[in-house]
Design brief:
13 helices; six-stranded parallel sheet; about 350 residues; binds 1,4-dihydronicotinamide adenine dinucleotide; alpha/beta; single chain; six-stranded mixed sheet
Length: about 350
């Protein structure tokens, strides 16, 4: 992130509450399509600068994700700077009040390090929270994200995952739900996580464990990154043995160069904000009171198919096509607004 990147943002705010020790960053990227919507991540950051950069990268991705998913939302993200201790109810209430003070410009949901129970506490202070599922719609976004990723993997493999070897990095809310879907559909799985209990849960579904450092570079058909971002460096992109990279993690590409290397090596990369939109589609529909999210989640497969076909026809890397498509949606909305 550079100085010029800041100018793209509607608002970036760091907040601290001395009484509860809560520290958070809000990054509201682009509100052309609607209020900035994206989950809150709770993570142990080395510095406030790291937290700001992460929030900015994630918020920018949300702008693109919401645009391509056809949602009436802009992109935003919040990060809570964890000190390693469990989050307290008092902290969650303060966080809720901060969201409320943004007056509806930011709508939150759960992301890494947060659970639905936490968001229920946050919502006691603000209505600008979704992904809770108490009105018969939506609910926990993790399994919805997994459903979209599963559809994407099917398409990337040409229709079926049966017999394919898939490496899943990260067995959290999305990863374990993805393992369930893949296992039921006859894929062969290798998995890794920092947490032994999560690995055991995947082993019970027939997965084989593998060392943390080996999961990306193994001899598999598909690598599904479902932990954190920035993992596809140029070096990793050159070392991959798979033919497809398709997972839920946000900001998988550490650089454009990594995306171009994947393309040149003939590895199909499913742009992260296209394939992982299931959770925000579900949470967004829940917020809007709309039904029919599943149909839109399953449509992720078709959207990826269009991108893969265009990439094959034009020779353009998939991440560049997705970026162009997302920006066209936003520019179109901006132009219509100016003309009105
Ligand atoms: P989570 O917090 O439930 O799980 C993340 C898992 O990754 C944890 O089990 C953690 O131990 C593991 N992990 C962390 N570093 C690892 C490493 N180096 N190697 C192996 N495992 C590692 O998070 P969740 O919700 O499952 O999200 C996973 C990814 O998908 C994140 O990048 C998130 O931003 C993204 N995502 C999640 C959505 C959702 O609906 N939850 C929606 C869209 C994207």
């Amino acid at each position: 992130m550079t100085e010029s990147d800041f100018s793209e943002f509607h608002r970036i705010e760091s907040r601290a509450d001395r009484r509860t020790g809560l520290r958070a960053v809000f990054a509201l990227h682009d509100l052309t399509l609607g209020p900035a919507t994206g989950g809150v991540r709770r993570w142990r950051y080395a510095s406030e600068d790291d937290a700001v950069v992460d929030a900015m990268r994630l918020a920018r991705g949300m702008t693109r994700k919401n645009a391509l998913a056809g949602l009436p939302f802009g992109g935003g993200k919040a990060v809570i700077m964890s000190d390693g201790a469990p989050v307290t109810k008092a902290q969650l209430r303060v966080f809720g009040r901060w969201i409320d003070e943004l007056g509806g410009e930011y709508i939150s949901a759960e992301d890494v390090g947060m659970r639905v129970e936490h968001m229920i506490e946050v919502r006691k202070e603000t209505r600008f929270v979704t992904g809770i599922g108490d009105r018969g719609l939506g609910g926990h976004p993790g399994p919805k994200t997994a459903r979209g990723v599963f559809r994407g993997i099917e398409v990337a493999l040409g229709g079926s995952v049966r017999g394919a070897r898939v490496a899943v990095q990260g067995l959290g809310a999305v990863g374990i739900a993805l393992v369930e879907l893949l296992s039921a559909a006859g894929a062969r799985l290798v998995v890794s996580d920092l947490d032994a209990d999560r690995i055991e849960a995947a082993e019970r579904l027939g997965a084989e464990r593998c060392a943390l450092d080996d999961v990306l570079l193994g001899d598999v058909d598909v690598v599904a990154p479902c932990a954190l971002g920035q993992i596809l460096t140029p070096e990793v992109a050159r070392g991959l043995k798979c033919r497809v990279v398709a997972g839920s993690a946000n900001n998988q590409l550490a650089s454009d160069e990594a995306g171009r290397i994947l393309h040149e090596r003939g590895i199909r990369y499913a742009p992260d904000y296209v394939i992982n939109a299931g959770g925000i589609i579900s949470a967004g529909y829940e917020y809007l009171g709309w039904s029919g999210a599943e149909v839109q989640i399953d449509a992720i497969g078709g959207r990826l198919d269009t991108i893969f076909r265009e990439s094959a026809a034009t020779g353009e890397p998939t991440h560049e096509i997705a970026e162009r498509m997302a920006l066209a949606v936003i520019d179109g909305a901006r132009a219509r607004r100016t003309a009105a």
